[in-house]
């Protein structure tokens, strides 16, 4: 069985810059999964530090209103990996999931770490490159011309164990 992970679509990230294209792609994919009665699992990053925008008690840590109502499950995490010290593995086992589709934020951290952790746990993994986004850019990493999504997608693709698609390829291969 397939399941979709929607990682860290939270107010603190969405309000950082214009992610309307990424959100639209995520919503289309979510609707495909919902239309097939396939689980949609949202991951929410939470922290305990009072000054963190991801403090569990702050509105900025809440799932963004544009997509949160689609969640069949919401799992909280405190690290980049959606698996580390969370209930995700148990939830997936109970659902009989063997193939995970990855979307969400931040491409080079939580999405990539989760994709690798999923593969390490024996899941087939499809990383939908242009249905991820990041608050970081070429200036953050001091690497002129860096396209973070493409870089991460290329690295994961080169692993030859994680399927990397863009939204158009996803629709062609898996969409309704």
UniProtKB/TrEMBL annotation:
<feature type="domain" description="Isochorismatase-like">
    <location>
        <begin position="3"/>
        <end position="156"/>
    </location>
</feature>
<dbReference type="Pfam" id="PF00857">
    <property type="entry name" value="Isochorismatase"/>
</dbReference>
<keyword id="KW-0175">Coiled coil</keyword>
<dbReference type="InterPro" id="IPR000868">
    <property type="entry name" value="Isochorismatase-like_dom"/>
</dbReference>
<comment type="similarity">
    <text>Belongs to the isochorismatase family.</text>
</comment>
<feature type="coiled-coil region">
    <location>
        <begin position="9"/>
        <end position="36"/>
    </location>
</feature>
<dbReference type="InterPro" id="IPR036380">
    <property type="entry name" value="Isochorismatase-like_sf"/>
</dbReference>
<protein>
    <submittedName>
        <fullName>Isochorismatase</fullName>
    </submittedName>
</protein>
<dbReference type="GO" id="GO:0016787">
    <property type="term" value="F:hydrolase activity"/>
</dbReference>
<dbReference type="InterPro" id="IPR050272">
    <property type="entry name" value="Isochorismatase-like_hydrls"/>
</dbReference>
<keyword id="KW-0378">Hydrolase</keyword>
């Amino acid at each position: 069985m397939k399941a979709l992970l929607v990682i860290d679509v939270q107010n603190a990230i969405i309000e950082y810059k214009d992610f309307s294209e990424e959100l639209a792609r995520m919503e289309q994919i979510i609707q495909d999964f919902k239309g097939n009665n396939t689980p949609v699992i949202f991951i929410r990053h939470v922290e305990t530090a009072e000054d963190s925008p991801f403090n569990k008690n702050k509105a900025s840590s809440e799932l963004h209103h544009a997509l949160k109502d689609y969640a069949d499950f919401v799992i909280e995490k405190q690290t980049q990996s959606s698996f580390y010290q969370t209930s995700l593995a148990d939830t997936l086992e109970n659902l009989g999931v063997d193939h995970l589709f990855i979307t969400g934020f931040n491409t080079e951290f939580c999405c990539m770490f989760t994709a690798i952790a999923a593969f390490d746990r024996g899941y087939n993994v499809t990383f939908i490159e242009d249905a991820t986004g990041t608050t970081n850019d070429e200036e953050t990493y001091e690497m002129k011309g860096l396209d973070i999504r493409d870089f991460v997608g290329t690295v994961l693709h080169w692993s030859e164990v994680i399927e990397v698609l863009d939204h158009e390829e996803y629709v062609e291969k898996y969409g309704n």
